[in-house]
Amino acid sequence: MIPLAIVLLVLGGWLVFVFNGLIKLRNQVANAFRQIDVQLKRRHDLIPNLVESVKGEMKFEKETLERVMLARAAAVNAGQGGNMNEVLAKEGMLTQALGKLMAVSENYPNLKANESVKTLMEELTHTENQIGFSRQFYNDVVTKFNIAQQVFPTNMFASLLGFTPSALWELPADSVERETPKVNLAV
Amino acid sequence: MNIYEQQASNRRMTAIMMAVFIGFFLVIGLGFDFFYLNFNPAGASHLRMNSDGYYETQAPGAGATIPFGTIVALLIGTGMAFNSLINGPRMVLRSTMARRAVPSGDKERQFLNVVSEMAVASGLPAPAAYIVPDPDLNAFATGTNPQNSVIAVTEGLLATLNREELQAVVAHEMSHIRNYDMRLMTVSAALMGAIALLSDFAGRSMRYGGRSSGGSSSRSGRKGGGAAMLVVFIVWIVLVILAPLISRMLAMAISRQREFLADASGAELTRNPLALISALEKIRQAVMPTNAINNGVAHMCIADPRGSLIEEKMGFAADLLATHPPMEKRILALKVMAYQASKPQS
């Protein structure tokens, strides 16, 4: 009788341990997902400043600047709407517009000397990196969560306990960001 | 071997080395207790003549069941190590005259941004960022847990590396923090201290005529094992004499293994091993030793602060006592991660 009780106790304890571990990982996944939004919002807030400070110099690039502002507005709207695919698509277009702006700014050497522009460019690079790393971290955490659910013997009862594998962050197949950027080197 | 496989192999090697280290410590410690303090849990309680003239069973005293020598040495070693653990970061920062990084200049702001990027990539809180006023290229990290850790880079490093390379170096240092390397090296230091103490004591006892092995072993009732005991004793004495050297070699081997691990973990954070390769090449070319950083944190730096000449030599002796692996091997391991070479470090 006693050995049976001990065995059951140990098994129960192990089950609790596994369950708690999976709960912890699931919450980390949710947290990491929302942290991506934090970085996206940072980018939205940074762009108007950037456009203002380069507007004076880049008088002849009005079109590029306008495209950036429009893309930003669309991305903010998509973010408030909450549809994942919308958000991905609009953020992708914003990244492209920003990329074009940074490439075009290479033609204006005066811009590079301007202190506030340099600071903002660094901030923009920093923000893009943060967005990339937060997505990378989200994928890392999701991978860890999925592995924890799918290893033996946890896989036998993970779904019973209410856990499902999470989806990794990925670009949709038809996303504009999957295209090779077109580089126009005409002077 | 990709970034995951290299990390797994490095952690395995560390576990094996730690096991060997602990085993070595136990051999030295328990041998000390056996030969000098009558520690013998397997000893049969022997018969002794008491004052009335009768033979009486004498229960073995406390010294026979508890290895006092080992425990005391371990406590003292741990005490010394803990002192460096708790006061370590502050003392190190003060000794290197490091100053807090503020977002004033271009480079410092970039450094702070890079540190916060690596914090996001690793999911840990950002460590405090310091700058060491030294023209040489080096960086180090201290801190027992990610919540109160510190990363410092030299001014020379900030001036020479570009953003990507700086990111790779910061990722390497963050990985030291992530992998709790400071704790591991503190445990190693505690073991080294304890072994040094025991070795010292054993040496003194020998010289000033402590208990001999013959006497204690016959008292614990092992009549026939006299010769075998003597051989064991001699082997143990040789180990004791070599103990400081052997324990240092073990600790340095562990330190080198953790450097490889930090390289691989850093590459996992940035997903960019090539940037670290180019940073290491630049560091290698600046041959000057970093005077500001002393040996206390040498094992936490990205390059040996005593000067890269030690790292360039790949001879046997240099390999065994160096805190860092040779740059060649580190760069090769990183190239393997980047799928640009086929043979990983042995």
Question: What value does the average pLDDT of chain B take?
Answer: 80
Percentage of β-strand residues of chain A: under 5%
Low-confidence residue ranges of chain A? none
Class computed from helices, strands and strand pairing of chain A: mainly alpha
- From the spread of the alpha carbons, the general shape of chain B counts as elongated
Question: What's the gyration radius of chain B in Å?
Answer: 25 Å
Notes on the structure:
The complex is a heterodimer of chains A (187) and B (346). The radius of gyration of chain A is 24 Å and the shape is elongated. The longest helix of chain A has 54 residues, at 2-55. Helix content of chain A is 73%, strand content 0%. The model of chain A has no long low-confidence stretch (mean pLDDT 83). Chain A has helices at 2-55, 62-81, 84-105, 109-113, 115-150. Chain A has one domain: de novo design (two linked rop proteins), CATH 1.20.1440.20. Chain B has helices at residues 3-36, 62-65, 68-96, 106-122, 155-160, 163-178, 181-207, 213-219, 226-270, 273-285, 308-312, 316-321, 327-337; strands at residues 47-49, 55-57, 99-100, 128-132, 139-142, 150-154. Chain B is an alpha+beta fold and 346 residues long. The model of chain B is unreliable at 210-224 (pLDDT under 50). Helices cover 64% and strands 6% of the residues of chain B. Chain B is built from 13 helices and six strands. In chain B, a hairpin with a 5-residue loop joins strand 1 (47-49) and strand 2. The chains are: A mainly alpha (187), B alpha+beta (346).
